[in-house]
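User: Show me a protein chain along with its predicted structure.
Assistant: Here is one chain, sequence first, then structure tokens.
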Amino acid sequence: MSITEERPARRDPAPRKRKTARRTLVSGLRRAAGLGWPVALALALCLSALAVDAWAARRSDRSPAANRALVDKARTGAVVADVSAKVARIFTYSYTDPAATERAANEALTGRAVGDYRELFGLVKQNAPVMKLALTTKVAKAGLIRLSRDGTAVLLVLLDQQATRGGRATGPPVAAQLIVTARDDHGWRISDLRAA
């Protein structure tokens, strides 16, 4: 063998081991990535299901089926009777006994309705003794528009009101319409009164 001739170099076994190690690492990463997308998909499906469930709950609260007034006849009747009696009492007034109306209002009203009623009642209380005014209110008809699961009722109440001055009628009965919102707070309490 001459100096110019070279023997074919032997391959070192170490590079093979390095290649095998790289292949193992790459295939391990591929497997991990392969496991990751099903987990991500499952998580995405779970989150989507929760979002759809929340959306359906909100939608069902606004749906006709969520209106308990349509499906609970006994409770509907009780709400209408109770709120109607309270509306009639708080809008019936006599200059000889203003305290009776104030007591009825204190028992029946809550929230925003208290301030609105006091403002209205203040004017009546000022002028009624001078003019000897009395007002008798009767509920002609009342209907429950909405009764929710959280204990809120919305009613349409039709009133007949007769005013007297010094014991004599000032004219024919006057009709009025109210939208009344009430809350079940150990008995129905009126939280809002609006002209319909």
